[in-house]
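Hello,

Our lab assistant flagged a job as stuck in the queue for most of the afternoon. It eventually completed. Since we weren't sure the result was trustworthy after the delay, we are filing this so someone can double-check. Below is the sequence as submitted and the structure that was eventually returned. Let us know if re-running is recommended.
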Amino acid sequence: MCLPPLWADYFAGANIEASHWTQIGNPKAADREIFDWAQQNDYIVFTHDLDFGAILAATNANAPSVIQIRTQDVTPEKQGTRLIEAIKAHESYLLAGALLTIDELKAKIRILPIRL
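-- returned structure --
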């Protein structure tokens, strides 16, 4: 919910199937509900919220994969190209279960489950 719905259209333009949570469930849903839905439906969560990574770490979950964007400007115009490149570069990890964090300088991948 913290990212604009126009990301779904941007992903579609890059041949990546995507839906914004407002097309799926209650906009006021708790992060855990979104996490559980993504896990049950084999979706990847794309977020600006650190809570999803925290849920992965706290639960030792193998899924869903989570992509966190950690920049101030989270619009597709500013981050789209970098994001699509990172998704393609790490696609096999994301399909198997991973946390991909993208910031202004780099993309970092962690294989699930996250061991603390």
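-- support follow-up --
The delay was a queue issue, not a problem with the job. The result is valid. Residues 6-111 form one domain. Helices lie at 6-13, 31-40, 51-59, 76-89, 91-96.
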